[in-house]
Amino acid sequence: MYTYLPVVYLGICMGILFIGSVSFTYLYLSTREKLHLAMLLVGIAGLIFVGGELAVLFSYLADNPPLGRQMHRIQALAAAAFIINLPFLVYQMMELNDVLKKTTLALYWAGFALFVALAAAAFIEPSLFISQDIPMAGELNIWLAPVRGKTGPLFILRDAIVAAFMLYTIFCMAYEVIMHRRYSYALFPLAGSVIAVLFVYFDFLHIYNPRNIMHVDSHSSFTSIGITIFIMLSMVGTLNLFINRSREIDRARRVESLGIFAGGVAHDFNNLLTVIMGNISLARLAATDPEMENNLVAAEKSAVKASELTRQLLFFSKGGTPVKSVTSLGNLIVSTANLVLSGSSVKCRFAISPDLHPVAVDPGQIGQVVQNIIINAMQAMPEGGEIDIEADNDCTRLWSEVPGSRKKRFAHFVISDNGPGIPRRHLRRVFDPYFTTKPTGTGLGLTISYSVIHKHGGHIFVSSSRKSGTRFDIYLPASTHATRAPAGNALEKPKGTGTALLMDDEPLILSVAEKMLVRMGYSVTTAKNGEEALELFRKAHDAGTPFTLTVLDLTVPGGMGGKESVRKMLHIDPSAKVLASSGYSNDPAIEHFRDHGFSGVVEKPYRFDDFARALRGALEG
């Protein structure tokens, strides 16, 4: 009944390992990741091991004992290769602490030494694996038939070493699951390791049978099945990890491609809004009629809301580079949430840890993330409900989802609601551009949130269920600097008494900005590009009447922009006060303006007060 059963299941094992090895060959050639290489090498070693076992069976079926013993050489080499590559796989797949890293590397080199020793033994004296011949029955039976070989010391040593390395793998995988909670992929190789060790144990039970005969030639060893199951489950876990990472990369690429388009639209729209908001500000300064003043205030508020739309577009475009400052995350979350929920039927409960790490973030962008998530929660609970916001330094989920995250400190906050939750089929798409289930939704709110957190070096996760609502976990890198005391709300508009040089390639912006500077008390000279501005700057300096301040647009299509202009201006006059202006903050000069020679920065669109505040900061800085 069991005559050719070992041949059948060994053939199935070889088929599985062959398909897996081919798949990971393609995967490694596509990604060049060491984890995929490690999995490929383990798969090939397992394939050769099982293939050698099958060759041994066929050799004895063909009544060729010498060939069968030689086939054990292949098995010995394959087992040795498996021993080498197992620590390599563990090292690449797991996030190990320093002790385990050193131990794993030591085992890798020990495995290399064993490989050399077993390879030499396999070719010099194969009888160390199979030591004698015994007459064999005419068919392959389970446990019953006399067989052709007697187990040698290296055969037992081989399986013992494999079992020891598998036990170490079990320890590392269990450590990964318990400490980092990597359930999505670490559980698969962990289960495979346990199964492999049990199968090797069954082999040992039979090897130490009083007859001490080589059972592998009568039914094949359980070790082959155990190794196959381990490799198969490890491949499943590795593929699961690869799929999760690929989704993140694909999502980031889609956001980036949409962002390039959105950034261009936002830049042009910002230029128009600068003109609109600037002229409204000037009109307010000249207005004497209270009713006209109220109308202008309403128009200005609408323009500010429009500028928030361009800001959202820039958040996930290449122009959404955060302008960071050390911020109290707890205060930012509470103030934003209270503002958004003002007048709504949704209640909010806060649990902010007093030792929450400070963070270096763009407050406007992170505030927008909080606002987007809370608005989604409010829309999910039209009849009212509760939102819980917690902030602490707990990184448990981050450690379980993102390899390498334990090396950095993060601040963590959670926004959860008790609404109906997100259907499982939609959960993986919530961050995709334009994905929405609301008739009036744009599908950009969570996409923007994902992009903002990503550009801050953070991570965002979502989970949901019908019973407990939706939960967003957000992690932001902690800052080593303390937060600064917030500045006062009062604004003193500077009164200029000197001269100003203004450069912008847009005539309308040039006009309204000139009017603002004149209103502040400056005598203004304008230029349309960097070359013209540089020439005017040089002439004024040579005449002994340098400009009190200079305002330069960063981007000038087809001409010299602000970054190149400021370098040349500072070469002429190192003490010059130069302000950068831009409506598309894709340049490091916005975030690190002092590193590029600027004294300050004003982002378009801006109002009179915004421009005045930026000028004062540049002159006093």
Describe this structure in words.
Mean pLDDT is 78; it is low at 132-148, 212-219 and 485-492. Strand 10 (549-553), helix 17 and strand 11 form a beta-alpha-beta unit. It is elongated, with a radius of gyration of 35 Å. The chain is 58% helix and 11% strand. Helix 1 packs parallel to helix 8, helix 2 packs antiparallel against helix 3 (65-93) and helix 8 packs antiparallel against helix 9. The strands form 3 sheets. It has a 5-stranded mixed sheet with strand order 2-4-5-7-6, covered by helices on one side. The chain has a 5-stranded parallel sheet with strand order 9-8-10-11-12, with helices on both faces. It is built from 19 helices and 12 strands. The N and C termini lie far apart (91 Å). It has 621 residues and is an alpha/beta fold. It has helices spanning 5-31, 34-61, 65-93, 98-124, 153-180, 187-207, 216-219, 222-286, 290-315, 329-341, 363-380, 396-401, 424-427, 445-455, 507-520, 530-542, 562-572, 588-591, 608-620; strands spanning 325-327, 346-352, 359-361, 385-392, 410-417, 459-465, 469-477, 499-503, 523-527, 549-553, 578-582, 600-603.
- What is the count of β-strands? 12
Low-confidence stretches: 132-148, 212-219, 485-492
- Radius of gyration, Cα only, in angstroms? 35 Å
- Tell me roughly what share of residues is in helical segments: 55-70%
What is the name of the CATH architecture of the largest domain? Up-down Bundle
- The CATH topology of the largest domain is Rhopdopsin 7-helix transmembrane proteins
Distance between the termini: 91 Å
Give the overall silhouette: elongated
